[in-house]
Amino acid sequence: MEGSVELPIAGLDGCELSLRVDWGIWGAELLRRARRQLPKVGGVLHLSLGDAKLLPQQSLREALLRRSPALRGDEGRDEGRWEEELRRTTCVFTYSCTNLLSAWSGLQGRETEDGLEGITDLRYEKNCIVSLLEDGLPASLTYLKFGDEFDQCLQGITLPSGLQTLELGEEFRRSMQGVTLPGLRSLSFGKRFNQSLESMALLNLRSLSFGHCFNQSLEGVALPSLQHLNFGDAFNQPLQKVDLPSLQSLKFGRQFNRSLKGVELPNLQNLTFGHCFSQSLQGVELPMGLESLSFGQIESLASQEDVALEPSDIAWPQGLRDLKGANFTAQELALPSGLQNLSFGRGFNQPLQSIALPALQSLTLGFGFDQSLTGVSFPETLRSLTLGHSFNQALHGAVWPASLRILAIGDSFNQAMQGVTLPEGLQDLIFGRSFNQPLQMRLPRDLKSLEFHGYNQDLALVWPEQLQSLRLGNCFNQSLTGLPQRLQTLELGNEFNQSLQGTTWPFGLEHLQFGTSFNQRLQEAALPSSLRSLKLGRFFNQNLQGVTFSGALQSLTFSVHFDQRLQGVKWPPNLQSLTFGHCFDQSFQGVVLPSGLQQLKFGHRFNQSLQGVLLPSNLQSLSFGNFFNQPLQEVSLPDGLQSLTFGVRFNQPLQEVALPSGLQRLELGDDFNQSLQGIALSNLRTVCGGRVSVAVASGK
User: Where are the membrane-spanning stretches (predicted)?
Assistant: First the structure.
């Protein structure tokens, strides 16, 4: 049968289409042509001849023969009879909720009858199959991400007009000339891309990011709406002839070192330079609306040719609020009066006594600063002060502003604190890795958080009544006698491994975290009844039978080495989150988990059968590690489960598994290679697997 025929297509909602098609047209092509005339998008399209679904790999002629076998033998002899039969056999298009499982199968390169319409987010983490692009992406797509292996030409590919975000991976290096991106708002390139964008019109683009290798001029590129522009390390092109009228944020990479004289960026608010920028700012008209300015390793605002640079030579925008990375000399620092946050760079090591600091709220003295603070006039508005890595000066002569709330002292500091008076309003105090001096001082009255990194001294101190958080760093390994009684958070570092027997816990302690070395019995610990979260470190591997957990405990986390039997453990009744580490691989047969548990996560090695295991009825999230590969046909998954995650090695059939109807996210590992045919999950929003991810908007 040759020639063409007028094909009427009726919609269930009363809408009708009419297409003139060849008898030999394939179902897939007919679907594509029909979809272009659809009154709406957002569902999977099906075409049916009578009650038989039109298959993608079947021609219209074959479909009609299947519907009306009596036509066989009349091919080429009675064309009118064929057309009459076609008119009597209604062709109907219908919508259904997007079948993400089928869409995911299609993205894997398998045959699937369903299209991708309704998909809003698509992440393809490996090299995309060519047919996915050639057959056309769904009109519903708004977010598209290709992974690091993707390096296919996009010329001639029709991208959806509603696409708003496009992310190209590390290996993509193809030309973008001729690629149409009409409504795109965000575009990012990976490491290898280094193609010219000249003559491209990206009229609606708001955000543009380049990777490491890009070093092409942007002259001639139309970017009238661009607000955010990020360059990678290699970019070093002049900007004097680049038109960026709407740009608000500009970030350069490591190699950029071009003069900014004559560059016009009228709406710029944030400007960041990289490591190599060393151009003079003398005579540069910085945008008057600039609010944040960050330098890399610049050591002077003057060029080598400048004989002398006066403070008045730099036209600081009066609206400048944040200045970061400054390594300038004191003579160059005529800072704007409205500056709120000042951060000096690694090389700054000038006395502060001669610098007129404006009404700052935050001051950071960088890596190399090591000057006395005696005689320094800190602004009365200062709320946060950070003394960098090299600072190791006595604090006795410092006069602190009463407004100070945060004081962070760097890793080299190890001076005695006896006789040092800190402002009573200080709330957060942080010491670095070297500090290990007795705290023979009166701690500030309002102190709420105290953090150490190298401290290993007795805790028998007079603690402020307001102290809520105590972080004892990696060197601490002392008895816990003398803990502050109003403490809410206690974090113990990697060296701590003391018995907890007889410990008097703060009556309101809510969060307790142990570090790497802790491996003591919990049966004698008498954990506080107020405890809400407990995190045990890397080497903890003690049995839990006989442990009395707090009734208020909501989160329990085990780390790498824990691998103990759980039968007979009395779990806290209000536990909501339970996480196991890398080594755990124990049977759950006979384990009674709390009915209110919402999140259960297993580590890499867990590979035990769950047949006969009673999972909590309120479980919402279940996650398995990389080794899990057990059949689930006889497993009873809770009806309320919303997220189900499998690791790399899972490769079990799911067709006979009673997956909960409310499941919203299904994550399958790289080894998964099973059919998903016939699985229907109407509430599914995201499917991931084999480095492919598809999603629909929550309102679809």
Answer: none
Give the Cβ contact number of residue 10 at 10 Å: 13
The residues, any chain, with a CB within 8 Å of residue 78's CB and separated by 6 or more, are none
Q: What's the CA dihedral at 311, 312, 314, 316 to 10 degrees? A: 100
- Topology of the domain covering 4-96: Ubiquitin-like (UB roll) (3.10.20)
Strand 91-96's sheet: what is its strand order? 16-22, 4-11, 91-96, 44-49, 52-53
Question: Which DSSP string corresponds to 331-351?
Answer: GG----TT--EEEE-TT----
Question: What's the distance, CA 609 to chain centroid?
Answer: 33
Most confident of 166-180, 208-222, 303-317: 208-222
E strands present in 100-199: 121-124, 143-146, 165-167, 186-188
What lies within 8 Å, CB to CB, of 80 at 6+ separation is none
Give the number of other Cβ atoms within 10 Å of residue 2's Cβ: 10
Q: List the structure tokens of 428.
A: 């957060």
Distance CA 569, CA 592 (A): 8
Q: How far is 462 from 468, CA to CA, in rounded Å?
A: 14
Distance (Å, whole) CA 630 – CA 638: 17
Q: What is the pLDDT of residues 633-666, one digit of tens each?
A: 999 999 999 999 999 999 999 989 999 989 999 9
Category of 489 on φ-ψ map: left (φ > 0), alpha (ψ -120 to 50) or beta: beta
- What mean pLDDT comes out for the span 391-410? 97
Domain ranges of the chain: 4-96, 326-447, 465-555
Count the alpha carbons within 13 Å of 484 in the hemisphere toward its beta carbon: 22
pLDDT score of 48: 63
Query: CB neighbours (10 Å) of residue 130?
Result: 11
User: What is the DSSP-derived secondary structure letter of residue 478?
Assistant: -
Tens of pLDDT, residue by residue over 559-579, are: 999 999 999 999 999 999 999
Closest CA to 187 of 155, 159, 152, 217: 159
At 564 the three-state DSSP class reads: coil
Structure tokens at 21: 């098609």
Vertex 610: Cα angle to 604 and 614 (nearest 5): 120
DSSP 375-429: T----TT--EEEE-TT-----TT----TT--EEEE-TT-----TT----TT--EE
* 3-state SS class at 104: helix
Element (H, E) at 674: none
Beta-bridge partners for 323: 293, 342
Q: Which two tokens stand for residue 509?
A: 């302690």
Task: Give the largest Cα separation in the chain, rounded.
Answer: 110
Q: Quickly state the pLDDT bin for 59 (edges 50, 70, 90).
A: confident
Buried b (16+ CB within 10 A) or exposed e, 511-532: bbbbbbbbbbebeebebbebbb
Measured CA to CA, the distance from residue 364 to residue 385 in angstroms comes to 6
Unique residue bearing structure tokens 């992406």: 137
Angle, helices 79-88 vs 60-67, to 10°: value is 70
- Specify the range with the lowest mean pLDDT, choosing from 118-122, 570-574, 580-584: 118-122
Q: Are 492 and 476 in contact (CB under 8 A)?
A: yes
d(CA 95, CA 80): 31
Contact assessment for residue 547 and residue 568, using Cβ atoms and an 8 Å cutoff: no
Neighbour count for residue 228 (Cβ, 10 Å): 17
HSE value, Cβ hemisphere, 13 Å, CA-based, for 396: 6
In one letter, which amino acid is 151? D
